[in-house]
Amino acid sequence: MSSTLEQLRKEFQYDKTNNCVQCGYCLPVCPTYLSMGKETHSPRGRINLVKMLGEGKITDVSILEEPFNLCLGCRACETACPTGVEYGSILESARAALVKRKKFSRPVKLIRNTMFTKIFPSKSMMQFIGNSYWLYEKTAVQKVVRKSNALKKFPFHLGEFEAIMPKAVSPKKRSQFQSFVKAKGEHKYTVAFFTGCIMDAMFRKINELSIQLLTEAGCDVYIAEKQTCCGALHAHSGEMDDAKGLAKKNIAAFEDIQADYIVNNSGGCGAMLYEYDHLLKEEPEWAERAATFSSKSKDISQILVACGIHRNLAPRNHERVTYQRSCHMTNVQKVTNEPLELITSIPGIEFVEMTDANMCCGSAGIYNLVNYDESMTILDEKMKHTKATKATVIITTNPGCLIQMKLGVERENLSPSVKALHLIEYLAEAVGIS
């Protein structure tokens, strides 16, 4: 075997493809296979491409780019696989290997480098973005931009997303940072709260409600000041070295807090934090520390149920509710029961499960920006099942899912009779927190 082929096998994790028996159990749960109808856009097909590359049957690595770039990374295939294929590892490795070999144009390279190294990991930059958006909302700029139809000219269909973004938190409110908030009533747990980068910039209100709910449930809440971006967007984009660097910073930032759990409120971030042990397992000086971190990482729904907050929820007025499951929360973190337990514990609601509830909505980090058309095809299918429930409230547990479902509501002309909310927003109302 040539050294080049051996290197390719190692980088694309060829050995892990041998567990795939090409049975096809992954096909019915793969959104891209169902929407695109191509074998190369299924987990089985992508794995076969890596096998062919590793066996020298494919010599042009770029052939793998489109199939792997169009993968949502929802990892539903892992739950359906009877032989335990580590598709997530193969996907991550393939994307990293492809990015390493791809020659980006200078503008694209500059944008990627700026976003991944200067913006997402920078708390000050993300705060600046959040404050700027608040200023955009509060001044006449937003009205002028909307009236001028300039939003239709924005790249990546950003104009459509602008219309459904949550209300921004004021700079004054942002400046009132507290690194510790004491539990109300009986103390049950000490937790460290992961704020996230996009969550804290654009969904700050949900973060604030999360902290209030945790304290209401009996948790002392610490916010590690040196925490940074989880690295999920970097890993999904093939920038694995950057993802590892961010993981190390977060592990170090949270180690000083003697917390029972590290709590997040975002399915995508939570999956990344949960897999820090996998990410750093080959680095002896970090492996044990990463494993300890991952073992403490929990979704907020798990902690709220453990604290029993769902036993004291105010009744709603006969609302019909459905739940859009976060893929990364369901398929990676394996958190499935707690969100449902919290939702169905609210008196007066009628919960209706949608058909194919576990199917991805098409958000997948920034997939709906960079692969808009493919994402909207998947969303439209999801909205068929959502509409069939006749629900007036759609609950989500991930910011990407929240924005995607809000967009779906607008595309189907269901507003204002149907609203999409993060689970935390819905629970806060039921507890009496505003």
TrEMBL record:
Q: What domain of life does the UniProt record list for this protein's source? A: Bacteria
Give a Pfam family name.
CCG
Q: Identify which top EC class this enzyme belongs to.
A: oxidoreductase
Does Iron show up as a keyword for this record? yes
Catalytic activity reported: glycolate + A = glyoxylate + AH2; (R)-lactate + A = pyruvate + AH2
- The EC number(s) attached to this protein equal 1.1.99.14
**Keywords on this record?**
4Fe-4S, Electron transport, Iron, Iron-sulfur, Metal-binding, Repeat, Transport
Endpoints of the signal sequence: none
Q: Which InterPro entries match?
A: 4Fe4S_Fe-S-bd (IPR017896), 4Fe4S_Fe_S_CS (IPR017900), Cys_rich_dom (IPR004017), Glc_ox_4Fe-4S (IPR012257), Helical_ferredxn (IPR009051)
Task: Give all residue intervals belonging to the 4Fe-4S ferredoxin-type domain.
Answer: 10-39, 61-85
Co-factor note (free text) = Binds 2 [4Fe-4S] clusters.
Q: Which cofactor does it need?
A: [4Fe-4S] cluster
Q: Does the keyword Aminoacyl-tRNA synthetase apply?
A: no
Function statement: Component of a complex that catalyzes the oxidation of glycolate to glyoxylate.
Protein's name in the database: Glycolate oxidase iron-sulfur subunit
What taxonomic ancestry is recorded?
Answer: Bacteria, Bacillati, Bacillota, Bacilli, Bacillales
